[in-house]
Design brief:
Order of helices and strands: EHEHEHEHEHEHHHEH
Helix content: 40-55%
Largest sheet: 7 strands, parallel
Structural class: alpha/beta
Strand content: 5-15%
Length: about 270
């Protein structure tokens, strides 16, 4: 596929999975809009993309705010004239016992992880419908099918992203727009570092997760990026409404809580 002229927006691209996705698109030859609330990190990632691939535009964006999401889309259109792909990756990973949560905790997670995905999609879809073409890729989570204690708003948000993906896929298929989701499992990001730091025995924690991942390793952010690239490409032209799991086989074998989280790791969510 010729990616020249292809314009992709990646939210939450200043770190972790988002950076890996942005790198995959830029390396392929697409124009990349890096959207993130973290200006310092966002500008650093964008500068790196420009240096390595001559690609990259940074737009400071808080996806929980409608005005920011609209400005993101407007700026991408003003710069490149079109939007071919939107990757809704921005998210908040949150773990806290339910009885210790307050309304602000719930709102923060749902506003970023679920509402933010809706808002960016809503404004991008206007431009895509006009061209009768486009792809939206929502980064969900293994929490769409298997979760942990003390992760209620996160699990609810990611479950909502999965179902929103399906609904929008049906609604916008007549316009030639495909909407899919990717559900990462354990990924080599700051969250993986946090999981190890939170464990009483880091080596035991690492072994526990490897024992529960059939492929026996942690994936890289770019492995998620490669799946996103596929879903944006012509090679997936008949794929819409799907949720592709990049979890090394972890969730296909889960049958009970004990196989997913040992007591020493309760409350730690394995996602971006």
């Amino acid at each position: 596929m010729n990616w020249n002229g292809h314009v992709a927006i990646v939210t939450g691209a200043a770190s972790g999975i988002g950076t890996g996705i942005a790198e995959c698109f830029a390396e392929a030859g697409a124009e990349i809009v890096v959207a993130d609330i973290n200006v310092t990190q966002g500008e650093r990632v964008t500068a790196d993309l420009q240096k390595r691939y001559s690609k990259g535009l940074f737009v400071e964006t808080d996806v929980s705010k409608a005005e920011d999401c609209k400005r993101l889309i407007d700026q991408a259109l003003a710069t490149y004239g079109q939007i071919d792909t939107l990757v809704n990756n921005a998210g908040v990973n949150f773990v806290k016992p339910t009885l210790e949560m307050d309304e602000a905790d719930w709102d923060r997670v749902v506003d970023v992880d679920l509402k933010g995905t809706f808002l960016c999609s809503r404004y991008a879809l206007e431009a895509m419908v006009a061209r009768r073409s486009g792809a939206i890729i929502n980064i969900a989570s293994v929490h769409t099918v298997a979760t942990l204690p003390a992760a209620a708003p996160y699990a609810a948000s990611k479950g909502g992203v999965d179902m929103m993906t399906r609904s929008m896929a049906i609604e916008f298929a007549p316009f030639g727009i495909r909407v899919n989701a990717v559900s990462p499992g354990l990924t080599d990001t700051q969250i993986w570092n946090d999981i190890q730091d939170a464990a009483e025995d880091a080596e035991l924690a690492r072994q526990h997760w490897m024992d529960n991942i059939p492929l026996g390793r942690v994936q890289t952010p770019r492995e998620v990026g490669n799946v996103a690239l596929f879903l944006a490409s012509e090679q997936s032209s008949y794929v819409t409404g799907a949720n592709i799991f990049t979890d090394g086989g972890m969730t296909i074998q889960l049958t009970n809580r004990e196989r997913f989280a040992s007591k020493s790791l309760e409350g730690v969510a394995p996602q971006d």
